[in-house]
């Protein structure tokens, strides 16, 4: 499996288009037992101008919620990633602990029940957010539900 996954990573790095990148990332994530991937690139050009670009293979009915910036302000996983570069392993417990069980219920209806997300906060107001989600109730039950430890 390790050799195959390494090849998938190389395929991602050598993607020549957004479509190819999206396909290669989804295949790599799916080879790890996850079902959905979301990638966001955020560029803060000025205090009044922030550009968001997203790629996801989320179910069509969920894409609008995934891209909704107002919902992201209330989502515990999005807020964790906004303020930290530490990965977060999440499931229903993370959402209910933060009083946002309704968010989990909504995304669980689309098959997003647990996952892992991480953000990279780069110089000059650039941010990269990556999340992989599973349709399983708990993706990594042996890990702490906040950090994966």
Can you walk through the features of this model?
The chain is an alpha+beta fold and 149 residues long. Helix content is 40%, strand content 27%. It contains seven helices and five strands, in the order ααββαααβααββ. The protein has helices spanning 2-13, 18-31, 60-67, 69-72, 76-83, 92-97, 101-108, and strands at 36-46, 49-56, 88-90, 114-122, 126-134. It has a five-stranded antiparallel beta sheet, sandwiched between helices. Strand 4 and strand 5 (126-134) form a beta hairpin. Helix 1 (2-13) runs antiparallel to helix 2. It is globular. The model is unreliable at 141-149 (pLDDT under 50).
Secondary structure elements and their pairing?
Blueprint: H1 2-13, H2 18-31, E1 36-46, E2 49-56, H3 60-67, H4 69-72, H5 76-83, E3 88-90, H6 92-97, H7 101-108, E4 114-122, E5 126-134
Helix pairs in contact: 1-2
Which keywords apply here?
5 strands, alpha+beta, 7 helices, 149 residues
Outline type = globular
Overall average pLDDT: 89
What ranges have pLDDT less than 50 throughout 5 or more consecutive residues? 141-149
Output the helix-strand order.
HHEEHHHEHHEE
Structural class: alpha+beta
Count helical runs: 7
Please report which band the strand proportion falls in: under 5%, 5-15%, 15-25%, 25-35%, 35-45% or over 45%: 25-35%
Number of strand elements: 5
Estimated radius of gyration? 15 Å
The termini sit apart by 23 Å
* Helix share bin: 40-55%
Largest sheet: 5 strands, antiparallel
Write out the strand line-up for the largest beta sheet, numbering strands in chain order.
2-1-5-4-3
């Amino acid at each position: 499996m390790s050799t195959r996954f390494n090849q998938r990573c190389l395929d991602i790095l050598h993607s020549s288009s957004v479509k190819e990148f999206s396909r290669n990332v989804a295949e790599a994530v799916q080879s790890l037992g996850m079902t959905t991937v979301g990638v966001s690139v955020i560029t803060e050009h000025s205090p009044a101008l922030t550009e968001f670009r997203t790629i996801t293979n989320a179910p069509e009915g969920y894409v609008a919620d995934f891209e909704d910036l107002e919902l992201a302000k209330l989502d515990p996983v999005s807020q964790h990633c906004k303020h930290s570069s530490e990965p977060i392993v999440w499931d229903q417990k993370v959402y209910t602990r933060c009083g946002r069980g309704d968010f989990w219920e909504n995304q669980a209806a689309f098959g997003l029940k647990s996952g892992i997300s991480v953000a990279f906060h780069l110089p000059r107001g650039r941010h990269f957010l990556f999340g992989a989600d599973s349709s399983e109730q708990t993706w990594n039950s042996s890990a702490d539900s906040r950090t994966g430890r």
